[in-house]
Design brief:
Layout lengths: L7 H11 L6 E6 L4 H10 L4 E9 L5 E8 L3
Antiparallel strand pairs: 1-3, 2-3
């Protein structure tokens, strides 16, 4: 989801999760700072669980926002 802006990271992640089995996990890497709010809200309003969230710089001085999400039932 690097280089994509709201709402594309969430929309694409939702589409991916919809094809996954309950309990499966996905790791999403985004560069949009708004994704922090979007992913927390998404997981709070769906059956999906935000297991971890991390922000760290990459080699191009861009902040990467990394989310680990478990597909809900």
């Amino acid at each position: 989801m690097r280089g994509l802006h709201c709402p594309l990271p969430i929309l694409r992640t939702r589409a991916l999760l919809d094809r996954m089995a309950a309990g499966d996990e996905v790791v999403v890497t985004a560069t949009d700072p708004a994704s922090v709010i979007d992913f927390k809200h998404f997981c709070n309003t769906t059956d999906n669980e935000l297991l971890a969230h991390e922000a760290r710089p990459d080699d191009t001085h861009t902040t990467l926002f990394i989310y680990r999400i478990r597909r809900g039932g």
